[in-house]
Amino acid sequence: MSFTPLTPSHVPLRGGRRALLRMATYPADSAGLLDLERAIVKARQGIVKYPDELPDDPTTYGDLQIRAGMAATDGSAFCMVAEEEGRGIVAEASILRLTLRMVRHVAVLGIGVHPDAQGIGLGRALLEALLGWVRDHRDADGGRIRRVELHVRADNPRAVALYRSLGFQEEGSRRGLIRRDDGNFVDDIGMGLLLPDPDEPSASA
Ligand SMILES: CC(C)(COP(=O)(O)OP(=O)(O)OC[C@H]1O[C@@H](n2cnc3c(N)ncnc32)[C@H](O)[C@@H]1OP(=O)(O)O)[C@@H](O)C(=O)NCCC(=O)NCCS
């Protein structure tokens, strides 16, 4: 392992709730993460999948995640989950780096909060912890992540507001990318966050 594992921490949420934020591990978290994604996809908000486009079982789901690089512990993936006591995984957030050397400083962010746990501060808590973890990471050769990017549906104002509040900027739209359940098309917005190098205060990226 060449990255520092995330130190688990409890965070207070609105409504007197609280959650444990910790690193995700595969295959141990496969079942909880698949259940979470099923619930989010079923709610039909913010996502680009139909329920039948998800794997049927946790093993297949975990295998796909591992093949996508999500289980890497070499600093190419940073995956977190949030657990509520007695309930299991209620949210996840992940950052996966691009692999080619010229774009190795770029990472793609994804996040999902269970519909029953949305709007109580969990998304913000997860992303603050995830971005902090990533900002602190250094590769063995001193390299680090300098750009985090994501794609978000234009009809997902909560997500756009959250990303903006964390410093992400809109960088353009792919018009009509997504066909909604009602048959209408919606744009997909690209957003990016540059992480300045603390050792080079004058640099913008
Ligand atoms: C989008 C998502 C990640 C946000 O997480 P969350 O836990 O629900 O959001 P939080 O409670 O942390 O709120 C974060 C911010 O969203 C904004 N927000 C919350 N509800 C909002 C609403 N109904 N409309 C607009 N903005 C809203 C606020 O700016 C809030 O900031 P605050 O901390 O100052 O109140 C979560 O709702 C989710 O997973 N949705 C379904 C899947 C999805 O959309 N994933 C992202 C794909 S790009």
Polypeptide structure, described:
Keywords: Acyltransferase, Transferase. GO terms for molecular function: acyltransferase activity, transferring groups other than amino-acyl groups. With 205 residues, the protein is an alpha+beta fold. The chain has a single domain, classed as Aminopeptidase. Helix content is 23%, strand content 31%. The protein is built from four helices and eight strands; from the N terminus they run ββααβββαβαββ. It has an eight-stranded mixed beta sheet with strand order 1-2-3-4-5-6-8-7, with helices on both faces. Strand 1 and strand 2 (18-23) form a beta hairpin. Helix 1 crosses helix 2 (58-67). The protein is globular. It binds coenzyme A (COA). Coenzyme A binds next to strand 5, helix 3, strand 6 and helix 4.
